[in-house]
Amino acid sequence: MADVSVVVVTWNALPWVERALESVRGNETIVVDHGSTDGTVGVVREQFPDARLIQQENKGLGGGSNAGMRLAGGDWFLLLNSDAWATDGALERLVAFGEAHPEAAVVGPKLRFPDGRLQRSVRGFPSLWRLATEYLFLRKLAPRTRALNAFYGNGFRYDRPLEAEFLMGSVLLVRREAADTVGLFDEDFFMFSEETDWCYRFRQAGWKVLFTPDAEFTHVGGATTKKTWGPMFREQVRGHIRFLDKHRGRREAERA
Prior knowledge:
Blueprint: E1 4-10, H1 17-23, E2 28-33, H2 40-47, E3 52-55, H3 60-71, E4 76-80, E5 84-86, H4 90-100, E6 104-112, E7 118-119, E8 122-123, H5 128-135, E9 162-163, E10 166-167, E11 171-175, H6 176-182, H7 194-204, E12 208-219, H8 229-247, H9 250-255
Parallel strand pairs: 1-2, 1-4, 2-3, 6-12
Antiparallel strand pairs: 4-11, 5-12, 6-7, 6-11, 8-10, 9-12
């Protein structure tokens, strides 16, 4: 298997971070902690002494991932949320798929909630209409239609490989060569939409973003953000507007 460097950004990541790190043990692992006060740092030091631990001020998910990737030595970066973990053999299958598709900058696996339910991770780039279907709850009127659900990947069934616009950033395998060509995360996106912007830049540069159902990871979802959802919701909205301002123009952002 090609060399993989795992980057995990933590902020009060117990109890899930132990399972996340255990699932990728044996690969170069870099943990970037943003001021945890719940014992996360102690757990990482005691139970995962081979992991490289960086402690820094909170620079957001993109900024933390960047700090880890700058120190990583692998051909691939696995960006793994602290509440996500690989099932048996999933990382190897994910990398094999990436190696078989040299046009791919980003490869994402099938995600499941801990109870086994599918977690929809395929996304469409924000637009004024797509944001309206989300924030005005229009998609609830016809949840199976493509017109009202493009923001969530047009109702894709997740049973075959797919070229996506972008993938939810809970688990992303990123080719170092591609990251070297377009740069790392834009740290103006503190949290939310940093992966949206990155995938957009990869695609603009001629790379592909691919989903494969052949590798499965479990993702709790919201383990950190639910603790402070009010500020996180505002940051999510800001991320969408930042994306429109950067890639669609100020007028479109103002309309949104």
